[in-house]
Write a structure and sequence with these properties.
Strand order of the largest sheet of chain A: 1-3-4-2
Shape of chain B: elongated
Number of helices of chain B: 10
Largest sheet of chain A: 4 strands, antiparallel
Strand order of the largest sheet of chain B: 3-5-4
Order of helices and strands of chain B: HHHEEHHEHHEEHHH
Oligomer: heterodimer
Number of strands of chain A: 4
Number of helices of chain A: 8
Helix content of chain A: 40-55%
Distance between the termini of chain A: 71 Å
Strand content of chain B: 5-15%
């Protein structure tokens, strides 16, 4: 059996934030959002926060900001109306703003539920899985690889090349321009190549870095693009067709 | 009079393509095959879709992410699932679904704007959605600090079975669930929002199917 405090813990962890918690409290009261009894809800909200503290749950700062806002509205409501300086600071407009936020959040929460249903419905349609060989399907490498993907792939290469000497007595200069030309030469004849092929003839870490910089430069100049078939998939370098190319 | 080769060729094209095919691509191939088409290829494709979907086979044609795709019928989904050795896990957390919904409807949108709606830090969720390639960067907002702008991807459309963003229901349909003056207790979903602990734990995959959950 689970203990009662575990049960409460489970429930509290389910809130997505202060707005979610407030919506829950309002629903428990079976009251209209527009008619929130601020004093009452504030008390319940603070009780919940206190409970979370007792349970040693991490309370995100956002929960405390909301607590402060609720207390502010509540205290302003106690003041005589004339003492409030301008319209925006009146408890009514603060409450209106809170209701607006609650309603807006509620809408997107429901939209999120709807998306979940869409995904679950759509997951019942199975398309034919990709079964062609890599060579046949290079046109299907449709996802643009981000800089993050490229860097992750570079780390892989560096790990594999970790046995290469990192310091040469007489370092030979690595020309990025030469590297760029070398990559383009391969791509002119083959149109596409796998990312790690770029580094097969690299004899030092400096070579690897130089080649990678050459690749970034070519991407910047729109000479090549880096593509993936699926997220986290292999990266393939594809030459961008130029105006003068034969069709 | 529709060429009797038209539908079989459409079927073959969709079968051979692992990705949804756009009407433009299908139209171009069909014309190269010398087939006479409607001025709007989509009309021919709609007829083709009825042809496939009405014959009660195991496959059907759907429109998704701006293209046409041949898929197994949902009635056969359980059987096909048995065939799969590992079930692909594309489940999204509640936080991820909220953020995706906000981006889908409000894109291009910045992190602070998303966080203003949710009232909670969303950086981690955004990073995760970026890694899953559900969202992408659309540039920077011309605003002090030049915050990054996010939008949904084509993979998002494919994952949620949407032909385009226009296929999402209007936001007012969700607003209608909360008409002013209506008591919460009268809402149809009032009961479900009690968050049954077991149900949500399952959703987070913290328990196996056999797990008893917390009652």
């Amino acid at each position: 059996m689970e203990s009662a405090s575990d049960l409460v813990r489970v429930k509290l962890e389910l809130f997505e934030g202060p707005l979610d918690l407030l919506l829950h409290l309002i629903r428990m009261q079976h009251i209209d959002i527009a008619a929130i009894p601020i004093a009452h809800i504030t008390q319940q909200y603070l009780d919940t926060i206190r409970l979370m503290k007792e349970l040693d749950l991490d309370i995100a700062g956002e929960y405390l900001v909301m607590a402060a806002t609720l207390i502010l509205i509540k205290s302003r409501m106690l003041l005589p109306p004339s003492s409030v300086l301008n319209e925006e600071e009146s408890p009514e407009s603060m409450k209106e703003e809170l209701i607006r936020r609650l309603n807006e959040y509620q809408v997107f929460k429901e939209a999120g539920h709807h998306l979940e249903k869409l995904e679950s419905d759509h997951s019942r349609f199975y398309p034919r899985p990709v079964g062609m060989t890599e060579e046949e399907t290079h046109t299907q490498w449709v996802i643009d690889a981000s800089l993050g993907d490229l860097l992750a792939a570079l780390q892989d290469i560096c790990r594999k090349h970790s046995d290469l000497p990192q310091h040469l007595v007489k370092p030979k200069p690595v020309s990025i321009r030469v590297r760029m030309a070398a990559i383009m030469q391969i791509l002119v004849s083959r149109h596409t190549m796998v990312f790690r092929e770029l580094f097969t003839d690299c004899s030092s870490r400096k070579d690897v870095i130089g080649t990678f910089l050459a690749l970034l430069e070519l991407i910047r100049l729109h000479q090549v693009t880096a593509r993936q078939r699926t997220a986290f998939g292999d990266i393939r370098i594809v030459r961008v067709s130029q105006p003068g190319d034969p069709p | 009079m529709i060429d009797k080769r038209l539908f079989p060729i459409c079927e073959a094209l969709l079968f051979a393509s692992p990705e949804p095919l756009s009407a433009d691509v299908i139209g171009e191939i069909l014309r190269q095959e010398g087939l006479r088409l409607d001025r709007d290829v989509s009309n021919d494709l709609e007829s083709f879709r009825s042809w496939i979907n009405d014959r009660e086979g195991g496959l059907m044609v759907i429109r998704v992410a701006g293209g046409w795709q041949l898929v197994t019928r949902p009635e056969a989904a359980d059987a096909v699932t048995r065939l799969k050795t590992h079930r692909q896990n594309t489940r999204f957390s509640r936080a991820a679904l909220e953020v995706l919904a906000i981006i889908a409807y409000r894109q291009p949108i910045t992190t602070p704007e998303i966080e203003a709606i949710r009232g909670v830090d969303s950086a981690g969720v955004l990073k995760n959605l970026m890694q899953k390639k559900m969202i992408t960067l659309l540039g920077r907002k011309k605003f002090p600090g030049n915050p990054l702008l996010y939008g949904t991807t084509r993979l998002f459309l494919k994952t949620f079975g949407l032909d385009s963003l226009d296929a999402l229901p209007d936001l007012t349909e969700f607003t209608a669930l909360f008409p002013p003056g209506m008591m919460q207790s009268e809402l149809p979903f009032g009961k479900q929002t009690e968050y049954p602990a077991g149900d949500l734990l399952d959703r987070n995959n913290r328990l196996t199917d056999e797990g008893e959950g917390i009652v």
